[in-house]
Write a structure and sequence with these properties.
Blueprint: H1 2-24, H2 31-45, H3 53-96, H4 100-107, H5 116-132, H6 136-156, H7 161-178, H8 180-200, H9 205-219, H10 223-232, H11 241-254, H12 260-272, H13 276-287, H14 294-309
Helix pairs in contact: 1-2, 2-3, 3-4, 3-5, 4-5, 5-6, 5-7, 6-7, 7-8, 8-9, 8-10, 9-11, 11-12, 12-13, 12-14, 13-14
Length: 323
């Protein structure tokens, strides 16, 4: 009997040591640990180790306690998941209502909770807060703050389409403040994450638009910036208006009329390609798009100026306010 007990103890320890250490540190019990407990308790019951029923008596409460701990850990995990679902649901409701400042104030209190879904939404909210601000310095601070949140979100879940998308967007936004050199150096990384975001979610029109905008920027690059790019990189980033147009049209196909800026960029791209009639059509759509966000306001103003250059008279101007 003593040999059987020693053998049981040694085998049980070898199989479950890591799981026990994990449990002692306050984490959830693994499914493997639970199965090991059940298997060994059944071995004893089947008298594989010839242990008397007296030996089993003190073991039964232990097994029950472990089972209770596993069950409790599962309950805690479910409770934690439910809490984040509630946070995300509230955040999405505020976002859809365009409550920019309220959304930021709500999400920032959860910035250290280590949840990727919360963090990329916080990155987006911080970015929108920066766009909403009329103070250039505050806008800059918001973009860099948002970029940090996007980095943390991506580190937590590198296979999330929104995490890749918002990291790419904010990497480019912050590069605008750091200068043309940094923006060029970051260009391939930005494109890489946009492509990954689209691969992970081909139906995300915003990611497709963002890649189109990347193409437009490098197609539209002035000659002196092209020269700088060629000195910084052996193969400098480049694109064409045709490639940019392809992405803008695809984004519109995936989700028609989803974004005022996509309509604006379609107008600008067609104008660059010399198709003024189609350019006017899209610019008028951008001008008349319901103004609810700062991006809508920007698209509205730019469309008016471009249409003026194309001989279309300007309607009354629109301004917005945010909660």
């Amino acid at each position: 009997m003593a040999a059987s007990m020693r053998r049981f103890s040694r085998n049980f320890s070898n199989l479950c040591f890591k799981d026990l250490q994990y449990f002692r540190k306050g984490h959830y019990l693994s499914e493997n640990f639970r199965k090991n407990v059940i298997r060994f308790s059944r071995s004893i019951i089947s008298r594989q180790y010839k242990a008397p029923w007296l030996f089993m008596f003190p073991l039964i409460p232990t097994v029950e306690a472990i089972g209770f701990g596993w069950s409790k850990s599962k309950d805690l995990e479910a409770e934690k998941s439910s809490k984040f679902e509630s946070i995300i649901s509230t955040a999405d409701r505020l976002y859809e209502s365009n409550k920019v400042l309220e959304l930021y104030d709500y999400l920032v209190q959860y910035k250290d909770k280590g949840n990727a879904e919360v963090l990329w939404r916080l990155a987006r909210a911080t970015c929108d807060k920066g766009k909403f601000s009329r103070d250039k310095e505050q806008r800059k601070q918001c973009m860099f703050e948002a970029c940090e949140y996007s980095k943390k979100a991506l580190a937590l879940d590198e296979n999330s389409s929104p995490c890749n998308k918002w990291y790419a967007i904010l990497l480019d936004y912050t590069a605008e403040y750091e200068g043309t050199k940094v923006r060029i150096l970051n260009s391939y990384k930005v494109k890489e994450h946009f492509l990954k975001a689209i691969k992970l979610n081909p139906k995300d029109a915003t990611s497709i638009y963002s890649l189109g905008y990347w193409c437009f920027v490098f197609a539209d690059l002035p000659w002196y910036q092209r020269k700088l790019a060629s000195t910084l990189l052996a193969t400098p980033p480049s694109s064409t208006y045709e490639e940019a147009l392809e992405y803008f049209l695809l984004a519109e196909k995936v989700e028609p009329n989803f974004y005022s800026m996509n309509l604006l960029m379609l107008g600008k791209t067609y104008e660059r390609l010399g198709n003024k009639d189609v350019a006017k059509e899209y610019l008028i759509k951008a001008r008349d798009y319901p103004v609810q966000t700062t991006d809508d306001e920007q698209a509205h103003k730019e469309a008016i100026e471009l249409l003026k250059n194309l001989g279309v008279r300007e309607p009354s101007k629109i301004s917005i306010s945010h909660g």
